[in-house]
């Protein structure tokens, strides 16, 4: 029962993050098609706007969560030897954690 619930939650997280990522990509493309920034300063101003920056931060949070839940499920299903499974999961967590820090560094340190 507990496993079924956690499976359901993973399923939900996978879909909610996928929907957000798809909407983000569509809206970002429409916005750029409607009028893209023409200079470096315009790009910086656009990316520094609180709404844009928040939407980008949420996009990467969704992407990393989505990748973690999806790839973790694939490993749980297909990697049977326990030691190998644990090693691969640790490697994945390390890689995604590193990417999260990298994104946070870019978003927090980028000049406003
Ligand atoms: C814009 C980016 C992305 C979008 C819109 C997206 C969308 C989706 C969608 C719609 C599903 C199917 C959900 C379902 O019905 O089961 C899915 C599943 C999945 N995604 Fe993504 N995804 C994106 C990026 C990624 C990335 C970067 C990774 C990993 C590196 C990833 C890994 C997976 C995995 C492992 C599954 C589950 C496959 C399965 O269970 O058969 N996705 N994604």
From TrEMBL:
Pathway: Carbohydrate metabolism; tricarboxylic acid cycle. Keywords: Cell inner membrane, Cell membrane, Electron transport, Heme, Iron, Membrane, Metal-binding, Transmembrane, Transmembrane helix, Transport, Tricarboxylic acid cycle. It comes from the Bacteria. It is found in: Cell inner membrane. GO terms for biological process: cytochrome complex assembly; tricarboxylic acid cycle. One of its GO terms (cellular component) is plasma membrane. The heme is bound between the two transmembrane subunits. Its main location: membrane. Its cofactor is heme. Heme binds at residue 66. It is a multi-pass membrane protein. Gene3D superfamilies: Fumarate reductase/succinate dehydrogenase, transmembrane subunit. InterPro entries: SQR/QFR_C/D, Succ_DH_anchor, SuccDH_FuR_B_TM-su. The keyword Cell membrane applies. Pfam families: Sdh_cyt. A ubiquinone binds at residue 78. The keyword Repeat does not apply. Membrane-anchoring subunit of succinate dehydrogenase (SDH). PANTHER family: SUCCINATE DEHYDROGENASE HYDROPHOBIC MEMBRANE ANCHOR SUBUNIT. This is Succinate dehydrogenase hydrophobic membrane anchor subunit. It comes from Noviherbaspirillum autotrophicum.
């Amino acid at each position: 029962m507990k496993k079924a619930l956690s499976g359901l939650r993973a399923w939900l997280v996978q879909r909610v993050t996928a929907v957000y990522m798809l909407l983000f990509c569509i809206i970002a493309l429409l916005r750029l098609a409607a009028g893209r920034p023409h200079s470096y300063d315009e790009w910086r101003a656009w990316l520094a706007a609180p709404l844009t920056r928040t939407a980008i931060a949420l996009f990467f949070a969704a992407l990393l969560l989505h990748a973690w839940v999806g790839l973790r499920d694939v490993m749980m299903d297909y990697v049977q030897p326990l030691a190998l499974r644990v090693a691969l999961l640790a490697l994945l967590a390390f890689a995604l954690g590193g990417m999260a820090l990298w994104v946070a560094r870019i978003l927090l340190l980028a000049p406003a």
